[in-house]
Amino acid sequence: MPIEKKPEKNAILFVWFNHYSGVLVRTPSKMLVIDPVDIRARSFPNADAVLITHEHYDHLDQRLIAEIQKATDCTIIADPVSAHRLQHVIPPKKLQEIRPGEEIKVGEVSVKAEECNHPAAAPVTYIITSEDGVKIFHTADSLPFQELTAIGEREKFDVVFCTVGIAAGTSPETGFEIARLTTPQVAVPYHTNSAAYQHKFAAILKKELPKTVCLIPELNKIYQVSKRK
């Protein structure tokens, strides 16, 4: 599943690789893996960083992360609870804890943590900004929350990943609400094993937010998103 090619100028590539929030993002120079579970370490031979949103089983696999890190020497960026659980399996210099409002650089790529409305110990969402300024919002398992409007206005997202199922309280409707509050160029319904949920999200989005494109992802397929003009 590695993304061999580079994205076009002012674009990023991504792959959704499990039914949860597992996403591989490729910028012109970096490969970022978010919440890897239910997949083999060799799927990410060129990982530059692994990002963890929270400690739940469908987001944090300590053994897998250790395997990826050992094979690639990548950086691990994690919420405080996940970082604590990883401290004995990841070299200290390669493990970075992040909290909402904090930013970590992976080369020229920015990784910034924001709040996450989800019943975990200290969950975060991630804003990833590529070298070209493409803005990605990975919302983990989050339900909508008030600050999303201000975040969306500030960041002007090119793509937002919206949870539509499996996680507590989530649905196509709550996923749409995240899209409505953040008003991205492209909205991606994920964290579900139900195509029906994804299509319901798409139908609501088309009716209520017609200027936002819905991209319904297939597992392990490569997609490109360009910077909004």
Architecture overview:
This protein has a single domain, classed as Ribonuclease Z/Hydroxyacylglutathione hydrolase-like (Metallo-beta-lactamase, Chain A, 4-Layer Sandwich). About 20% of the residues lie in helices and about 25% in strands. It is built from 5 helices and 14 strands. The protein has helices spanning about 60-70, 80-85, 150-155, 170-180, 195-210, and strands spanning about 10-15, 25, 30-35, 50, 75-80, 95, 105, 110-115, 125-130, 135-140, 160-165, 185-190, 215, 220-225. Helix 4 runs parallel beside helix 5.
List the helices and strands and how they pair.
Blueprint: E1 11-16, E2 23-26, E3 31-34, E4 49-52, H1 62-72, E5 75-78, H2 80-86, E6 95-97, E7 103-106, E8 109-114, E9 125-129, E10 135-138, H3 148-155, E11 159-163, H4 172-182, E12 186-190, H5 195-208, E13 213-214, E14 222-226
Parallel strand pairs: 3-4, 4-5, 5-6, 10-11, 11-12, 12-13
Antiparallel strand pairs: 1-2, 1-14, 2-3, 7-8, 8-9, 9-10
Helix pairs in contact: 4-5
